[in-house]
Amino acid sequence: MLADTATVYTEVKRLGDGFAQVYAEVDAEGAPRVIGVSFDQGMLEGLPAMPNTWSRCFDKDGDGRIAEHGECNGDYELRFALPEELARRGVTPFQWVSVNWNPMGHPPPAPPPWAVPHLDFHFYIMPEDAVAQIRPGPCSELIDCDDFARSQLPVPPQFVHPDHIDVGAAVPDMGNHLIDSKTPELAPGGPPFTHTFIFGAYDGEITFYEPMITLAYLESRPDTCTPIKQPKAWASEGYYPTTYCMRYLPAEERFTVSLEDFVHRTAE
Is the pLDDT of residue 101 over 80? Predict the structure, then answer.
């Protein structure tokens, strides 16, 4: 950490047998250098092996009960506000963070390689109360059909990299997912899925940034950063990341998943 950088933290929350919290490294002017999630080895242990029957669910067959398969996304979620010291400055569009454990990955229309145990790290631009208005229903990944239509409104091309495409992977209380069509595991005969980067979208706007990482890859204790494919323009002014990183820190016996190398962007 550079001498003129301070690290600030949120509260700690439990997942699996361990704990996680959101942190940010901010410079002397309060601008972010890093926004990430820090967690211990225990968070990768004791995780539920099966999806739940209460998260992002819809009674598609109308029988008055939620089936274990086909009527729930079933993820386990932690939600965090940004550290207050960063949030009150309003210098970045990100407003809150979620960590989502998916014991069996994602169902169609998500690509088949992603049907493996993994964690999603959502860094939201869209306010939490607005995300909560994206209702469950019978369309796509159990989203309300009117809300699904709103999720399909195209993001103006200058605000998203052309490799990130819409495959209809819209989820209630979350939004649409614009996947990287060039991510290696989607190529014919490609390698196993380890990690990829997704942009969230709703109402024709980018709503979150998301590193999606397999449990197996995190258990390998990585130390790597990957560039985030950048758009040509940004809809609102602020500091935006240009890389995402996954690290195990042996001295601290902790993992981090983070957005880094922030650059100030002006609005088009």
Answer: yes
